[in-house]
Amino acid sequence: MINTEKQLRTIPFPDLANVFHTINGREKFIFLPLVSVQFDNHSEFENRHFHFISIWDTGTYEDDFFNEFRKDIRCIKFKLEDNKYCYLGKPNFPFVDLLPNAYDLIESHFQEHLEYYLRPKSFREFSDENGVFNKGREIILSKLKDFDKADAAYYYERIIQYLYTKKKYELFDKINSDFSYSELFIGRTTTKENVIATFNDEGKSDHEIINNLLGKPNWLQKPEDISKDLSLIFVGSVSENDFTNGSAEIYLFWDKQNEEVYQFFQWT
Question: Distance between CA 126 and CA 120 in Å, rounded?
Fold first, then answer.
C-alpha cells in the first residue's frame, strides 16, 4: 500500500473541465464525474490522474448507442491524455438530444428549492406525492413531452441526487446521497432531535469512498472476463449509490501500454 498522505489525492466531484477533453459537447449530460485519484511521483502511476465516472445510457443497451469504446454495457474505456479522458465517439441512445434541456431544468429546480433539499426530513415527508421532489419530476415530463416517461423520471432522480450529494459534500465534507432520515429507531434507541442533529454529519470521508485502493477487485458478481491481450492494473472501485441513484460498483483499471482506462460495472 502506498503512502496516501504523500503520493495521492482523492477529489470527490471534480470539475468536468479537469476530467474530460470535450469532444462532442454531451459529456456533461452523460458522464458524471464521481471522484478523481491524483498520484504524485508514484512508482507505478507516476503523476497520472484517474477518474471514476457514472454513465447515463437509459439503462438499456444497443451496439450503436456508443461506439467501439463501449462494446458491452458492462465495460467502457477512455483514452487518457494529459490526465484527462477522451471519449472518441458520439453517443446515440434514445432521447440523448433532450438531455441538455433536461439537465438545465433539473439544475434550475434544484437551485430554486435548495433549502428544501438540504433540510433534514423523514422519508414520509420526502416521498409525499405533493412534495418538491415529485413536482420536479413532473416538470421534466411536462416540458419535454417527447422524453420517455420512465427515462425522464429516472434521469431526473439521477441528476438531482448527484447535485444534492455534491452540495452536501461542499457544505459538510461527507459523501452521503440520502435525501431523508430513517424513523426506524426513533423512540427506541434515539430521538428525532438527535437524528436530525446528526443527519448532515453522516456519510463517508474522502479516504473512505474508494474501495480496495491498489489492491484486488472485490467483484460483486463473478470476475469479469478480461482479455488476456490486455495488461490491466487495478486502481480501485467506488459504489455508485454513494453519489447517485445508480446501483453499480465501478471498477477502474489502467492499460499502461495503450494509455487507456477501463471501467467495469457490476450491479447489486
Answer: 9
